[in-house]
Design goal:
Order of helices and strands: HEEHHHHHHHHHHHHH
Oligomer: single chain
Strand order of the largest sheet: 1-2
Pfam families: BPD_transp_1 (PF00528)
CATH architecture: Orthogonal Bundle
Structural class: mainly alpha
Subcellular location: Cell membrane
Membrane topology: Multi-pass membrane protein
Mean pLDDT: 83
Radius of gyration: 28 Å
Protein name: ABC transporter permease subunit
Helix content: over 70%
Number of helices: 14
Low-confidence stretches: 1-12
CATH superfamily: MetI-like
Largest sheet: 2 strands, antiparallel
InterPro entries: MetI-like, MetI-like_sf
CATH class: Mainly Alpha
Shape: globular
């Protein structure tokens, strides 16, 4: 009887202690969720709403160079009256002018080819890093990250000195007798591909290395023991297991490459038609902020498509893993 009397307070104290420890844990869990969503709200949704708001405006000779749309100073009634007067003329204009459509298509094609080339270059590098001795991997990883220690703009300017007709590449090829006259590489799409592959290669290598480094290579040895050729083992075992890294790397390269401005402008020349350069011209040269904002909104919608596809593929992979 006394034992039962003693156990009741002990149980109550234990429940109170467990409840006290759960409260900070639940608060911490909520805080971990709130922080990234607050970050997205402040630095993504609010700027996007501002850009979308400008895209519904009309160009004007003023500062800023557009007529305000959705002005909240007039209260709720004023906002409702403005909603009835909103115009999507800027988006209609983008469909009527082939310049913007061609810029979108060219940007997507250039980004797609650059992503494929980056994958072809980065996959062997990541595979070699994952198979290297464990003591050597941190050094190789540092060498991949090392270009980030130098300014992106300086690295692009360095490629101008390499690719121009009297640059280092042509001097080397001419001195070895491989070519008889300088190659015209600068101010072409070839130079753009070289610049994008070089600049975004670490973004491809790092997720590939993360996926390949976790792979169980005893599966390859088992397949080879069963008579599977190395190439077949790679395509049936290694590559499928590295697909999450491939998809992540392709997204990290493709998305910024679509809207790239510096590389096409410096390496591709003035004749390059890409959406990043078109945006810059509309904002700075033409001072047409509403149209350029509409271009930016449509560009964002175009870039959301591969992200949705990637999330859908990840969800399917997780379901199959279960």
């Amino acid at each position: 009887m006394a034992g039962a009397t003693l156990s009741a307070p002990t149980t109550a104290n234990g429940a109170a202690a467990a409840q006290a420890t759960q409260q900070p844990t639940s608060f911490t869990g909520k805080l971990v969720i709130i922080i990234p969503y607050t970050f997205l709200l402040v630095f993504f949704l609010v700027p996007f709403f501002i850009v979308f708001k400008i895209s519904l405006s009309q160009v004007a000779i003023a500062m800023p160079p557009y007529t305000p749309a959705l002005d909240f100073s007039g209260g709720i009634s004023g906002v409702f009256s403005q909603l009835k007067e909103l115009s999507f003329d800027n988006y209609v204009f983008l469909t009527e002018d082939p310049l913007y459509f061609n810029a979108y298509v060219t940007s997507v094609i250039v980004a797609g080819i650059s992503t494929l080339l980056t994958l072809l270059v980065g996959y062997p590098i990541a595979y070699g890093m994952s198979r290297a001795p464990a003591t050597l991997r941190p050094t190789l990883l540092m060498l991949v990250i090392l270009p980030f220690w130098t300014s992106f703009l300086i690295r692009v300017y360095a490629w101008i000195g390499i690719l121009k007709p009297e640059g280092l590449l042509n001097q080397l090829l001419l001195s070895t007798g491989i070519i008889s006259e300088p190659l015209i590489i600068l101010n072409t799409y070839t130079a753009i591909f070289i610049g994008i592959v070089y600049s975004y290669l670490p973004f491809m290598v790092l997720p590939l290395y993360s996926a390949l480094e976790k792979m169980d290579y005893s599966l390859i040895e088992a397949a080879q023991d069963l008579g599977c050729p190395p190439i077949t083992a790679f395509w049936k075992i290694t590559f499928p297991l590295s697909l999450p890294g491939v998809l992540a790397g392709c997204l990290l390269v493709f998305i910024p490459a679509v809207g790239e401005f510096v590389i096409p402008d410096l390496l591709g020349g003035s004749q390059t038609l890409m959406i990043g350069r078109t945006l810059w011209n509309e904002f700075n040269a033409n001072r047409d902020w509403p149209v350029s904002s509409a271009v930016a909104v449509l560009l964002l919608l175009v870039l959301i498509i591969p992200i949705v596809i990637f999330q859908h593929a990840q969800a399917r992979a997780q379901e199959q893993g279960r």
